Each structure stands twice: as structure tokens, then as C-alpha cells.
Amino acid sequence: MTRLIDSGRRPASSRRGFLAAAIGAAATALAPGVTLYAFGGEAPPVRAPGEPASAKSRWGLLIDAGKCGDGCDRCVTACREENGWGDSGPAETRPQWIRKVSVRDPASGTKSEPPVMCQHCAEPPCVDVCPTGASFKRADGIVLVDKHICIGCRYCMMACPYKARSFVHAPVDNQKVAAPRGKGTVEGCTLCVDRIDAGKLPACVAACASEAGGAMIFGDLNDRESEIARAAATSATSQLRADLGLDPALRYQNL
User: Which residues pair with 251 in a beta bridge?
Assistant: First the structure.
């Protein structure tokens, strides 16, 4: 499969360039919507307080599937509680920012139940197909949805090979300040970007460390001295559907 080209290197004649030209001045006017997820608080050590996200960092997760206990869904519960997505309504229309999946190695018979969510790809197809720019990637690699300009077309849902996005079918009550949601929009894992911007761990990682098997490592993939970079350098890791060339920021061990 042809590898997608990063938006920063795309020629003007590319698909995204064409879409940008099509919406013209409107895109410029909507650019402030990118700050939808910007919140105060203590910044991570790699950034000075108030400094915008930059490509110096790329946030990611390393998940050891061998440490994911059978039936454990503490990461799912923590995500739901932190971001306010519920489990009411028919199963086929329920939002699901993170889910546990059952994986079996046909050769050895080994089973595991790793969590799957938005993979925060370096080359996100959801961003590539979005006609309004609502799906976007921050400079530090976090892939988000600007709910102010999402029109609910669901092209991003169709483009995502990980089935990591959900459509909000019903009105939303009791929203969390840090996780704006709305009927008729698409949503998915944000890596708890508000917590990251405040120098904290994503909710799933914190819950797994304190209440479950400690299967998740969060950190800066660009920092060779970070725990996640050292762990990835010293043991075999894999990416989901690496053959697609999307370069996910989520890596897995013992999968």
C-alpha cells in the first residue's frame, strides 16, 4: 500500500491541499478552534509553561498485553469516568473511546486482551479524509476532533482501520469540561490531552498503574531517555496494522 505523506510535506496539488483551497478563508477563520482542548495547569517537563505543543515531542503509549489480566477493564472504566461517555442505549450506537479485544496467537494458542483505542497515527487517514478540518493532528502527534466544525459526515470513521471513533447519536448531558461532546459529532480517544497539557498521565495509564497490572507506559517517543523510548528500544514491540504505513503512536508488547 502506498504510504501516506505527512501534511507538512504534501505538495499543493495533494488531496489535503485541494481541500484547504476549497474551504479557503473559512479554514483560516476556523483555525482558532484548534485551541478547543487547551487548558491551564502545569505543563509537562519538556515544555515551558504556556508554550504551545511542538514536534519536539511525540506522545505515545506502550502496552504490554501480557500484563492485561483476563476480564480487566479498569482502563475502559477510567476513560469513561474521565471523559463522560456512557454505556446507555443500544450497543450498536454506544460511544466507545477505548475497548478491550480478545487476541489469540494461532501458532501458540496464547491469548491476551489488550486495549484498543485511537492509535494517534503519524499519518492519520481520518485527518486526510475530513472535509472541514475538524479531524486534525497536533504538532506533538495527538489526533483530535474539533467539535465546533465537525459536521458528522463520518468519513473519518470509515477511514480509520482501527474502528476507534464513535458517532454521538443522542443528546449529551453532564459533560466534562475537559471533554466537550455533542450530538451529531464524531469522537474518540484524545490521550486525555488536557491531562497531558497539565503534566499528568492519561486516565487509563494512571488507573492501570494504581489499580491493575501496570501494563501501560506513557511518554515522549522522541525523547530517547524517556521510559517509553528505553522500553521500546530494549524489547520487541509491534504496531497494529503496521503494514498500512500509518506509524501509530501506540506500541504493543507480547501481542
Answer: 62
For residue range 127-179, what is the model confidence (pLDDT) as tens digits? 999 999 999 999 999 999 999 999 999 999 999 999 999 999 989 888 899 99
CATH number attached to the domain at 10-253: 3.30.70.20
Strands (E), the chain: 59-64, 98-100, 103-104, 111-112, 115-117, 135-137, 143-145, 165-167, 186-188, 216-220, 250-253
pLDDT category at 71 given cuts 50, 70, 90 is confident
Q: Where are the domains of the chain?
A: 10-253
- Owner of C-alpha cell 464513535: 166
H or E element that contains 209 = helix 203-211
Ranges assigned E (strand) in 111-201: 111-112, 115-117, 135-137, 143-145, 165-167, 186-188
The three cell numbers of residue 219 are: 511518554
- Length of the chain equals 255
Distance CA 109, CA 166 (A): 32
Cell of 115: 486495549
The separation between CA 161 and the C-alpha centre of its own chain, rounded to angstroms, equals 13
pLDDT tens-digit profile of 225-250?
999 999 999 989 999 999 999 999 99
